[in-house]
Specification:
heterodimer; A: about 240 residues; alpha/beta; Rossmann fold; 6-stranded mixed sheet; 10 helices; globular; B: about 300 residues; mainly alpha; ABC transporter involved in vitamin B12 uptake, BtuC; two-stranded antiparallel sheet; 4 strands; binds adenosine-5'-triphosphate; binds magnesium ion; cell membrane (chain B); amino-acid transport (chain B); membrane (chain B); BCAA_transport_permease (chain B)
Chain lengths: ~240, ~300
């Protein structure tokens, strides 16, 4: 097991957002976490990436194991630099005052592997030709969809082998969404482990191998993507019928 | 008449250099932390005192080095020691507050208190008597037609210009510089890039404080009388220069510093010298009324 969330409790101040959730992600898998607004999906990802307060929350119980080791005491930057887990956060959080290329360059901050790093620029520009086109453009002038691609590209540039995606389809047209998922599939085929959060449960379950359904801080259903797609409760609550 | 204008302009550049070097420190820290480091003027004072003690040690002490050797040693050492002072403030005062997520108001008040502690600590331990800075280099006067320039003044102006271009290259070209710019836009995403925020903040304080240290040396050489409160007014003025330039932007701080120098000197050229600060601040106020974000500042909602 690559990632194991064990009975995780998370609090914002006195308000508990996650009430003891458990799930796992294996190496090379695509796992999706679905759930409606406020279910605790983003909270879960922020706990894994150790986003510090005040932006982040506090883990009040349970554990997060990565490769069998607890990462609860690891700092946020080290999760990326040393554990190679990257997050493409909800709302993109690109550095709008920097160019596209500078955004990508910044993501390589802790990397020392010069040759591989050069290749990764080509890889990203190859996966997202739009990024190559917009390379020298100040990134806040990108369209919403392009910013989303930049956010994912940036995560790739950190040399992660586990990527957490918080609603990567947000703001994308159906065509771009299709593109994005095609790229993610390709990354996975190249060995990237993916934990995906999506509002669009239908899409996510068609794409992932396995899934978990999160409802107000608790996991209420789990299984292979196929089973969840056919689960009547899930169908009713999240797949519109 | 014209002659005196050019002469004044040159003097303005010298004062502008001091303001610019100090304003850069305000703007760097603000850009990265959204903190107005009101202790920064006193860091400049600390720099001047460090330069003073080092100079006495190398120049007047048993070593009795030559003035120019002393200067070559004093410049880097003062910059290093002053930045240690700046980083110490960040460590013991600002970082703990940041960790606790303290309201910005408390952090600003802490900065003001740190400044007062530096001033009064100096007063308490070194006494109220003023220190006079030794003359390290012989004054050479160059006469360009009607304008006279001293080697020291030329040195001051050139140093500030060179330092600015080095700093600008650092901010635009290096990854740490990029991270400093990026933090001001989105602090949340910095650790997501594998960047330790604290490292970037420490580098920011090192840069800002070492420039204040350099300003301290240059100022002490130009106006060789030091007292514990020498940083207060200059600090305020440099802060205003940074705001007028557009705080958070290093070009703004640089230009703002020179602008303030020019406005001040021109005010004295026309009005009695007691009017200097009144007129200078009134003009800066008018600039801010017309363009509240400062000359180079851009209104941006993400700037908190
Ligand atoms: N900074 C915060 N302070 C207090 N409560 C918070 C904070 N962030 C999230 N919460 C609460 O935690 C719960 C889970 O929020 P979270 O953002 O994880 O939901 P989500 O599943 O990502 O929702 P969405 O689909 O809308 O993004 C919500 O009830 C939310 O109100
Ligand atoms: Mg969310």
């Amino acid at each position: 097991m690559l990632l194991e969330i064990k009975n995780l409790y998370v609090k914002y101040g006195n308000i508990e957002a996650l009430h003891g959730i458990s799930f796992t992600v294996d190496k090379g898998e695509i796992v999706t976490l679905i759930g409606s607004n406020g279910a605790g999906k983003t909270t879960t990802l922020h706990a894994i990436t150790r986003v510090p307060p005040p932006e982040g929350s506090k883990v009040s119980g349970g554990d997060i194991l990565y490769d069998g080791k607890s990462i609860l005491n690891v700092s946020a930057h080290s999760i990326v630099a040393d554990y190679h887990i990257a997050l493409a956060p909800e709302g993109r959080h690109i550095f709008g005052n920097l160019t596209v290329e500078e955004n990508l360059k910044l993501a390589t901050y802790s990397r020392k592997d010069d040759a591989a790093r050069k290749k990764d620029y080509e890889r990203v520009y190859d996966l997202f030709p739009k990024m190559a086109e917009r390379r020298y453009q100040r990134s806040e002038t990108l369209s919403g969809g392009e910013q989303q691609m930049l956010s994912v590209s940036r995560a790739i540039m950190t040399a992660c082998d586990f990527i957490l995606l918080d609603e990567p389809s947000m703001g994308l047209s159906p065509l771009l969404m299709y593109d994005m998922f095609r790229v993610l599939k390709k990354l996975n085929e190249e060995g990237m482990t993916i934990l995906l959060i999506e509002q669009n449960a239908n899409l996510a379950l068609k794409f992932a191998h396995r899934g978990y359904v999160l409802d107000t801080g608790e996991i209420v259903a789990r299984g292979s993507a196929k089973d969840l797609l056919n689960n009547p409760d899930v169908k009713k609550a999240y797949l519109g019928g | 008449m014209f002659d005196s204008i050019f002469q004044n302009l040159f003097n303005a550049l010298q004062w502008g250099s001091f303001y610019s070097l100090i304003a850069l420190g305000y703007t760097l820290v603000y850009g990265v932390l959204r903190l107005i480091n009101f202790a920064h003027g006193d860091i400049f004072m600390v720099g001047a005192y460090i330069a003073f003690f080092l100079s006495i040690f190398f120049f007047k002490g048993d070593l009795a080095l030559s003035g120019s050797t002393t200067l070559v040693l004093v410049i880097p050492l003062t910059m290093i020691l002053t930045s240690i002072c700046g980083v110490t403030l960040e460590r013991i005062a600002y970082r703990p507050l940041r960790r606790k997520g303290a309201n910005r108001l408390y952090v600003v008040i802490t900065a003001l208190m740190c400044g007062l502690i530096l001033e009064n600590g100096n007063l308490a331990f070194l006494g109220a008597s003023r220190k006079s800075f030794p003359e390290l280099i012989d004054k050479v006067v160059y006469q360009f037609g009607p304008i006279s320039m001293t080697n020291l003044k030329i040195g001051v102006v050139l140093s500030s210009i060179i330092v600015f271009f080095i700093l600008n290259a650092f901010i635009t070209k290096t990854k740490i510089g990029m991270a400093m710019r990026a933090i001001s836009y989105d602090k949340f995403a910095i650790p997501l890039m594998g960047i330790p925020i604290d490292t970037i903040i420490v580098v920011t304080f090192v840069l800002g404080s070492s420039l204040a240290g350099l300003a301290g040396i240059l100022f002490a050489m130009s106006y060789p009388v030091l007292d514990p409160f020498m940083g207060a007014l200059i600090g305020w003025k440099a802060f205003i220069a940074a705001v007028v330039g557009g705080i958070g932007d290093i070009k703004g701080a640089f230009v703002g510093g020179f602008l303030l120098g020019i406005v001040e000197i021109m005010a004295v050229a026309v009005f009695p010298s007691t009017f200097r600060d009144l007129i200078a601040f009134s003009i800066l106020l008018m600039i801010l009324v017309v363009k509240p974000t400062g000359l180079f500042g851009i209104a941006k909602s993400t700037k908190i």
